[in-house]
Amino acid sequence: MHPARSVIFFTTASGAGYGMMVWLAVLATLGLLPTDLPFGLVAFGLAFALIVAGLLSSTFHLGHPERAWRALSQWRSSWLSREGVAAILAFVPLGLFALCWMSLDRQGDVALLFGIVGAAMSLLTIFTTSMIYASLRTIPAWRNGWTVAGYLVLGPMNGAVILALLFAVFGYDGVMVTMQAIALALLVLGVVVKALYWRHLRVSAPVSTAGTATGLGHLGKVELTASPHDSDNYLLREMGFRIARKHAQKLRRITILLGFVVPILTLGGAMLMAGGAMATILSLLAWLACQTGIATERWLFFAEAKHVVTLYYGEQAV
Amino acid sequence: MTSLPETTAKKLGLVVDLDICVGCHACAVNCKEWNAAGKSAPLTDYDPYGKKPDGVWFNRIHTFETTDDAGQGQTVHFPRSCLHCEDAPCVTVCPTGASYKRTEDGIVLVNEDICIGCKLCSWACPYGAREYDEHAGVMKKCTLCVDKIYNTNLPEESRVPACVSTCPAGARSFGDLGDPQSEVSKLVAARGGYDLMPEQGTKPVNKYLPPRPKEHHKGQRGEDGKAPRMLAHADASTDGAGLIARWVDKILS
Ligand code: SF4
Ligand code: SF4
Ligand code: SF4
């Protein structure tokens, strides 16, 4: 599948934003979230900025962005529509949570209630995003539980890494260590989920073949000898995108290294230091590596996924 | 509404006979011709006279070759267009309601006035039947010539999809596949018509008829299993030749 830049940015950015919101709510509930205004403004502001930037960018690849509101209408059948509805509904509790936290009612029950509902809505929104992909039978690489698990783990993981950095910058050493511990646990979980996702791709049997696509399988091996057109068409550009196997392997290694291994080492180091300038620098490195790794992971998620329509263009099994 | 109708009054669709199709692309050309001026107009072409011509087509003709265990092969021309599926995934994924299936005849259409061009329906279709128009920013697809088959300005016999009226070989039939008594349903029953990628769960309305079994080694091929020898270049006798030819032959020999 063609890895559209706007979709990669959208899913990683809003995933990270929702992930931050989840942990802000959890820390608030545990009574660990710092209550000072500058921190609140930066943390909530960044989370909202990531969510909004992601949602806006997701409209860029539309042929008619001005009609985007129409996408809210078909939630009965369409996961894309459900995602839109969930994303908009999530703004209500998340906005109230941020407002309450930063103004009147610091640690009051009302703020916490909005926080918990907001966190649940954030996870629900990430889930609906993952289901857009996981519900497509035409792309077996996506139609499995590991797709959902990947989105649900990587968003909160990314959010945790960002929050760990913010706590380091603001010098909240106590809660920083908690956040680092959470981030480390999620980084380990994340690499396990990705490894299992790739294992699933390797071991699962093909769903459709050139034989079933043409119905000529009973005649033996089916091979394309003439394509309907000489140059690329929409189908080949959008659905036929693929990367060389050797690049896929290299990019998987980059994903594992930057997305997980480097952040685990740097965040682990920062945790041992328990504060100070060096801890901040290590947390920054952890975030930079993690962000690059997740972007690579998302690019691969598209580029590696084969669509069954390629069976009409020379592919043997998908 | 992009929820699918429970049932449709008719199941209009095509039957494509792979035994007859000669891969001439006439159906694809006439499809383009009709639809470039009809409901879905224009079917945009990009770089039409340049090095890499490209554009929106609703019907594309592939050619496949099969090889069995004995090494015997067959060439099969394979027209590919929307199958107007009963459980059309392109419809249910659509977030706007632009993609829909008609209750009266089962035709799957796009309302271009509300399509946002998200392309998700083209991802959901296993058959590559939807093509995005980059200029219009909306998705387009085969309409089963909805603006032709009901058009009372046309003579009765012309009220069939453009691909069907144009096929010089008679490889394409059109009718109600929901009615077991219709000509197309009888044809499908008689010839063992089948669904493409049934495992995708789309329940296509269009059916394909398989190539008839080839009787290898009987008549079509020579003793050595290869194609029959060419005729000798010179005839040995004048049996069956005309009067003048026999007379010239007598003079010359
Ligand atoms: S062939 Fe594709 S576009 Fe046509 S109805 Fe079926 S899924 Fe939809
Ligand atoms: S491209 Fe148009 S018709 Fe297709 S799913 Fe999106 S809005 Fe619906
Ligand atoms: S016009 Fe008829 S014979 Fe020619 S490609 Fe189309 S179906 Fe085949």
From TrEMBL, chain A:
Task: Provide the species name.
Answer: Parerythrobacter lacustris
EC no.?
Answer: 1.8.5.3
Give UniProt keywords alphabetically: Membrane, Oxidoreductase, Transmembrane, Transmembrane helix
PANTHER family on file = ANAEROBIC DIMETHYL SULFOXIDE REDUCTASE CHAIN YNFH (PTHR38095)
Chain ranges passing through the membrane: 7-33, 39-63, 84-104, 110-136, 148-171, 177-197, 255-288
Question: From the UniProt record, which GO molecular function terms apply?
Answer: oxidoreductase activity
> What's the protein name?
Dimethyl sulfoxide reductase anchor subunit
